[in-house]
Design goal:
13 helices, single chain, Rossmann fold, Four Helix Bundle (Hemerythrin (Met), subunit A), eight-stranded mixed beta sheet, binds guanosine-5'-triphosphate, SRP54_N_sf, alpha/beta, GTP-binding
């Protein structure tokens, strides 16, 4: 029995020793595992600057995104190359028509559109006898062509005097009429566009007028004229009232590689104009052309806005040219517009558009007399290059070619 109890004691002692040994091995490991978690970064770390970008990638919240830790030799394998982004082919730029061929083409169109006017004049003057009725008919023809009453009276007076003094016999009526019409249109006016800025800054052209006269189209066409003359141009879409106007201008610019500065729809036109000019100065452009929204001359608020656009531009660069765009088909109404616009922004030149759709070329004379500023450009169609510098001699010849 004693031997048995000795065995039992021995087994118990060995068992206790085994348990103690096991405990000595396992507990430190468990302790190591049970270390407290690092503090929540979302609380205290938010106040710290974001850690340096370990691999250059940063989340939207500004925190660095770490890559997986390198895992042996596999980590140094070449990264898979991202496919090359597809580069859209640059749009092919158009080459605007040069001045010479444009003039020949548009002169014919002008003659075509004004043939009612010209033919009427020549038919009257080729009558056998120029009696009072004939002179009255001549006056009617000139007034219908929008020459204006004062200019018509003047022209008829001068013609009658010349024929009386020089004698109707042997006088080339066509030549006399040409001379008198030319005097009326005034070839001595300076019709050059100011495209040379002062002090190395761009020349700025502001384009104004009532709705739908063709301002945006004219700005686009004018940009092409200047590009054809190898000038660098920046366009400003300060017509923020009509979203389509900025789109339209964007397309005009794209076609000839001219940058267009735009603002959000409804934004302050003066700030868009300012930005356009700033960009023009920065890019060392030759000319900045600023398109404005159409406005009726009797809306005082809108006219004030136009004055502001000009003043804001002039904080950087003086405006060298204010072009008033008039629709030739609106006749005498255009004169009322001209008067008010001129008071607000000091118009320096007129662009007469849609002369291709009007037999009222006489408006050239009327508007020049009304404003005391020359018609500098004429629009003769909806085509991209259907804008021509106005030339008094060519204009009168076109009338009489009919
Ligand atoms: N036939 C003809 N159409 C022209 C001429 N100039 C402009 N147009 C047309 O006139 C329409 C109005 O032109 P826009 O340039 O949009 O006129 P806008 O003055 O900018 O218009 P708003 O911004 O609404 O004031 C367009 O259909 C042009 O194609 C021209 O010389 N001849």
């Amino acid at each position: 029995m004693d031997t048995l109890s000795e065995y039992i004691w021995l087994i118990l002692v060995l068992g206790v020793l085994a348990v103690v040994l096991l405990a000595a091995l396992v507990v430190p490991r468990l302790r190591r595992r049970a270390r407290p978690l690092p503090p929540d970064r979302s609380s205290s770390d938010d106040l710290l600057p974001p850690p340096p970008e370990a691999d250059g990638r940063t989340t939207d919240a500004g925190t660095a995104v770490l890559d997986e830790p390198p895992a042996g030799p596999a980590a140094v394998t070449e990264p898979e190359l991202a496919p090359e982004p597809e580069v859209a082919p640059a749009p092919e730029l158009e080459r605007p028509e040069g001045a010479a061929s444009r003039l020949v083409r548009l002169r014919q169109r002008l003659a075509g559109s004004q043939n009612v006017f010209g033919r009427g004049l020549l038919a009257l003057l080729s009558r056998d006898r120029l009696d009072d009725d004939a002179w009255e008919d001549l006056e009617d023809t000139l007034i219908t062509a929008d020459v204006g009453v004062a200019a018509t009276t003047e022209l008829v007076e001068r013609l009658r005097n010349r024929l009386r003094i020089e004698g109707a016999e042997g006088t080339d009526l066509r030549t006399v009429l040409r001379e008198e019409l030319l005097t009326l249109v005034d070839p001595t006016l300076d019709r050059t566009l100011a495209t040379q800025g002062a002090d190395g800054k761009p020349a700025v052209t502001l384009v104004v007028g009532v709705n739908g006269t063709g301002k945006t189209t004219t700005v686009g066409k004018l940009a092409r004229v200047l590009v054809a003359e190898e000038k660098s141009v920046v366009l400003g879409a300060a017509d923020t009232f009509r979203a389509a106007a900025a789109e339209q201008l964007g397309t005009w610019g794209e076609r000839v590689g001219v940058p267009v500065v735009r603002g959000p729809e409804g934004s302050d036109p003066a700030s868009v104009a300012f930005e356009a000019v700033r960009s023009g100065v920065e890019q060392d452009a030759d000319v900045v052309i600023v398109d404005t929204a159409g406005r009726l001359q009797n809306k005082a608020g809108l006219m004030d806005e136009l004055g502001k656009v000009k003043r804001v531009i002039e904080k950087q660069v003086p405006v060298s040219e204010v072009l008033l765009v008039l629709d030739a088909t609106t006749g005498q109404n255009g004169l009322a517009q001209a008067r008010v616009f001129s008071e607000v922004v000091n118009v320096t030149g007129v662009v007469l558009t849609k002369l291709d759709g009007s037999a009222k070329g006489g408006i050239v004379v009327a508007v020049q007399r009304e404003l005391g500023v020359p018609v500098k450009l004429v629009g003769l169609g909806e085509g991209a290059d259907d804008l021509a510098p106005f030339d008094a001699g060519a204009f009168v010849d076109a009338l009489l070619e009919a």
